[in-house]
Each structure stands twice: as structure tokens, then as C-alpha cells.
Specification:
This protein has 324 residues and is of the alpha+beta class. Helix 1 runs parallel beside helix 3. It binds cytidine-5'-monophosphate.
């Protein structure tokens, strides 16, 4: 467990103590969705990859009870409005409350400053990364010493992607995408991420998937990840990986944002091995043939005024990077 690299101090929690936690964004190399269940969720089989685009949270214990959340002006994320305080219903505040079975929040407050680098509503789990980082931070500041299983259980209540942001790496997710098992892989994959100015709402994209399937008379079976993709990941064969990337949410995302299809075609024509929508979009993840290709490709995209960034993975999940 990465968070145990920092042992909490042996004196009781004291206002002014702070911790810095970093949590990665993700892309989905495969996202297979079953039919809508009575719960309103879709059973998923997905392959998550944590990439080196991170949310950084500085969490400080304060004297006055209450949770204060601010977005750092250093944020680079598309859609981030700097210095805007966020409401108490934010997923980050929910994460702190969900972990607080001992009533620490009645004694001390929390100041949480988020440096957002993962696009907002971009299909890369930026909000889930913030929630995962908050769990790790509160566990440290409140001296909870929670087990991985305990944190995982709280993470699941917060959202389907939160457990993966805790775990990181490369993992298969089933159920709602929250029952995880690590996948063995060789080496890193390199990506160019193309961002969109406007976000897409996850529930709307799932609803569009249901409509599309109803129109086409499709009856999806139980979702399953192709053996070919898992074997390609195992071998670290990037062309084979490119061939087996799949996202069932791609068609509905493209239907909701007509620009996306054109941008993906353009990216593949310019030299991406494959361009796919990440999660429920609208971020487009372009798989490249190595780091240098990714670097050059991003430079070309930026020249053409396309908002893009280089990324690679797998990287670890939410972890403490500094304490005061
Ligand atoms: O769990 P999370 O808050 O990320 O999900 C947001 C919404 O996305 C859900 O309320 C649901 O409408 C949709 N969703 C779904 N099937 C999933 C995950 C999410 O239908 N497996």
C-alpha cells in the first residue's frame, strides 16, 4: 500500500498539520457494457490504465470544523476555473464524511486545495481521483490506519471509478467497474490525449447507449473483455493492443458530441495507431508507437491548435507525496 510509506506522527492530530496526496487519472483500454440493470447501473467489464496525469491535493487540518475546498490557480485541467471554492456536496467532501465514522470533522476542519490536471467531466475520472486522494489524506491526518479493504469499501460507495484511482496500475474492473483485479503487463504504453472544451455527463452517455441499442434492436449479453486484448497487454505488443481497444460508450459519446468522430479520424490519419474515447468521454486517447512518437504527435496537434497532452501508464494509485 503506497500510503504506508508515510507513517503518521505518534502525537494526536493537531491543526496546521498537512499532507500532499497525488492520484492519477485513468483511461479505459476496453469498456464493455451490459444491459441497464434495475439498479440503474450497467454491468461493466473494463480495463483501466492509470496515467501520469495527476490530481494533487494538499489537505490541512484546521481549527474550525467544516470542509473548505479550493481549486489551486496552478490547475492545468481543461474546464478548471481557478480559485473557485467548491460546495459541501462535492465528491471530495463526501469522501471525507464517508471515512469519518469517529466524528473527527466535529473536532477539526479540513482545508483541501486541489490542483486539477485531469480534465473535468472528461471521462478520465478526475473527480474520482480527488475522492481517492481525500481518503488517503484523511486516513493519514486522522491516524486511522485503515486497511486497503476498508478504504476500498468506502471508495466504492463514492463512485464506480474511485476504487481504481486508489489502486492504480493496470486492472480489470467488473461489476460496476469497481471490483478490481490487477493485470500483468509488459512496459508502458504512450498516449496523446486530446481534450474537449465541454464535458460529457456520464449518466447521459449511458442513457444514449441504451437508446442507441434500442433503436438498433441490440440485446447486449454479459460484458466480457477480449482475450486478445489481455494477451496483447501481457506481451506488451502495442500494435496488437491498438487492434483490440474497444469502448461501448464511444458511439453514444460521438452521438452526443458530433465533433468527436472527426477529431478521432483526423488523429488516426495523422499517425495515431488508434484513437478511442476514454470512459464516457469526451477525452480522446490516441495510442502511439512509443514515447518519441507521442511527443512529436502532441507537438503537431498543438501546432494545429488542438488541445493535447502526452501521457503514459501504468502509474501507481493515490499516494502521499509529502507531509509537513
Ligand atoms: O458511479 P458513478 O457516480 O460514477 O456513476 C454515475 C452514473 O453513470 C450512474 O448514476 C449511472 O447513471 C451511470 N453508470 C451506469 N453504469 C455504470 C456506471 C455508471 O449506468 N457501470
Amino acid at each position: 500500500m503506497p500510503m504506508l510509506r508515510f507513517t503518521p506522527p505518534d502525537h494526536p492530530p493537531t491543526p496546521g498539520e498537512k499532507v500532499r496526496v497525488r492520484a492519477p487519472g485513468k483511461i479505459n483500454l476496453a469498456l464493455e457494457a451490459g444491459p441497464k440493470e434495475p439498479s440503474g447501473y450497467h454491468e461493466l467489464a473494463t480495463v483501466f490504465l492509470a496515467v501520469d496525469l495527476y490530481e494533487d491535493l494538499t489537505v490541512t487540518l484546521t481549527e474550525e470544523p467544516g470542509i473548505e475546498i479550493a481549486i489551486s490557480p496552478a490547475s492545468q485541467a481543461y474546464g478548471a476555473s481557478s480559485s473557485t471554492p467548491l460546495g459541501d456536496d462535492n465528491l471530495v467532501a463526501q469522501a471525507a464524511r464517508a471515512l469519518d465514522s469517529n466524528g473527527y470533522l466535529d473536532t477539526f476542519g479540513l482545508h483541501i486545495e486541489i490542483t486539477k490536471n485531469v480534465p473535468i467531466a472528461g471521462g478520465m475520472a478526475g473527480g474520482s481521483a480527488d475522492a481517492a486522494a481525500t481518503l488517503v489524506a484523511c486516513d493519514y491526518l486522522w491516524r486511522l490506519n485503515s486497511s486497503r479493504e476498508d478504504l476500498d469499501a468506502v471508495a466504492r460507495e463514492l463512485g464506480a471509478d474511485v476504487p481504481f484511482c486508489l489502486l492504480g496500475g493496470l486492472a480489470l474492473g467488473v461489476g460496476r467497474g469497481d471490483q478490481l483485479s490487477p493485470i500483468l503487463s509488459r512496459g508502458h504504453t504512450h498516449w496523446a490525449l486530446i481534450f474537449s472544451d465541454k464535458g460529457l455527463s456520464t449518466p447521459k452517455v449511458f442513457a444514449a447507449l441504451d437508446r442507441l441499442r434500442a433503436e438498433r434492436g441490440e440485446d447486449p449479453g454479459r460484458p466480457e473483455i477480449s482475450r486478445e486484448l489481455l494477451s496483447a497487454l501481457n506481451h506488451g505488443d502495442v500494435e496488437e493492443i491498438a487492434a483490440y481497444l474497444n469502448n461501448d460508450l464511444q458511439a453514444p459519446a460521438v452521438k452526443l458530441d458530433r465533433n468527436l468522430g472527426g477529431v478521432m479520424n483526423f488523429a488516426e490519419a495523422m499517425g495515431a495507431l488508434r484513437a478511442i474515447i476514454s470512459g464516457s468521454g469526451p477525452t480522446i486517447a490516441c495510442l502511439m508507437d512509443g514515447e518519441e512518437d507521442a511527443h512529436e504527435f502532441v507537438a503537431e496537434l498543438l501546432e494545429q491548435n488542438v488541445n493535447a497532452l502526452q501521457a503514459s501508464g501504468p502509474v501507481p494509485g493515490a499516494a502521499i507525496i509529502a507531509t509537513n
